[in-house]
Specification:
alpha/beta, Rossmann fold, seven-stranded parallel sheet, two-stranded parallel ribbon, globular, binds NADP nicotinamide-adenine-dinucleotide phosphate, NAD-dependent epimerase/dehydratase domain-containing protein, Epimerase_deHydtase
Amino acid sequence: MAKEGEAVCVTGGSGYIGSWLVRFLLERGYTVHATVKDLNDEKETKHLEALEGANSLLRLFQIDLLDYDSIVAAVNGTAGVFHLASPCIVDEVRDPENELLAPAIKGTNNVLTAAKELGVRRVVVTSSISAITPSRYWPADVVKNEDCWTDVEYCKHNKLWYSLSKTLAEKAAWEFAKEKGLDVVVVNPGAVMGPMLPPTINASMLMLLRLLQGCTDIYEDIFMGSVHVKDVALAHILVYENTSATGRHLCVEAISHYGDFAAKVAELYPEYNLPRLPKDTQPGLLRSKIASKKLMDLGLQFIPMEQIIKESVESLKIKNFIS
Ligand SMILES: NC(=O)c1ccc[n+]([C@@H]2O[C@H](COP(=O)([O-])OP(=O)(O)OC[C@H]3O[C@@H](n4cnc5c(N)ncnc54)[C@H](OP(=O)(O)O)[C@@H]3O)[C@@H](O)[C@H]2O)c1
């Protein structure tokens, strides 16, 4: 629970994960400085302003990740920062430097610099499994864990710009923490799904929507398991509140292949005539039910894949993305 009157900043508070995090923080009594890209865009603000407690505990700030002063204004007066804002583009990218790399890496440096300058106690950085895999040199007989890092050269060669942006941004965060002595902890979620609070659809829910529409992509390089959006939000709060939490935290209900996920969707929703995909879509990826042991040890009980899928499909229906 929040210390009396404690204020925290959530960058990317308008986003898919950010909205659930803001909601849980308000429920716990935190004062929340949530950042949005455009204060005049109701698609970014309305669902946040409708949250319980928003009237008294929520303040919205407009930031651009490349504009340091805008970030200072949002972080000022807070004891903790959750840094989620980062462009999430996994489709074709025309200008990787400006669309992805600069906002992710310079944005992270700007947020951490502001946090350090303003005396913030702890920063939780939202990285991704995209900073863990693809990793060519990981031993074939060992389940991937927090010691595993994405192969940067592989990303450059295969134009995996999103994975490159998340990997370099997380590396920059660790470098900053070490050099400047800032308390940083990291959460590395898998494919995040579940009920949507914003009116727009994000990249991971789009993955499920496309599958339901018959798309045969197997996301070979960017899938390592799914996780419920509420569990991701809770994971952020757990690593913030537990001073014993350190380092990276893999956040998936299990390490699984996209083929496992697609097969479960097909079993639960035969009416959508899903494509038949191979089961082993991530060659060499060892499956594990206890991969997120660090978060389990902090008390997180992960919602299983079946429930993640059911709540996601329900949300896609409610928001009229499918009928
Ligand atoms: N969804 C997943 O499966 C998944 C998995 C692992 C990690 N993550 C990470 O989790 C975080 C949140 O992802 P999400 O799924 O919630 O995506 P999202 O809904 O697209 O949220 C991204 C947020 O970042 C903000 N943002 C992007 N570029 C910005 C910029 N230049 N300046 C200021 N704000 C900017 C967005 O603002 P607008 O809404 O105004 O565009 C949005 O609030 C990201 O760091 C992502 O890499 C996501």
